[in-house]
Amino acid sequence: MSVQWYPGHMAKAKRLIREQLRLCDVVFELADARIPRTGRNPVLDQMIAHKPRILVLTKPDLADPVLTRQWLDVLGQSGTLALKFNAVRGGRVENVFQAVQRVLDGAGKGHTKGFFRAITVGIPNVGKSSFINRLTGQRVAAVGRQPGITRGKQWIKVNRWLEVLDTPGTLWPPTTSDPAVGYRLAATGAVPDEVVGKEEVAAWLIAWITENNPGALRKRYDLRVIPGEPVDLLEIIGLRRGLLLPGGKVDHEKTAAMLLKDFRNGMLGRFTLDVPELP
Ligand SMILES: Nc1nc2c(ncn2[C@@H]2O[C@H](COP(=O)(O)OP(=O)(O)OP(=O)(O)O)[C@@H](O)[C@H]2O)c(=O)[nH]1
Ligand SMILES: [Mg+2]
Question: Which domain holds residue 243?
Answer without folding.
Answer: 197-264
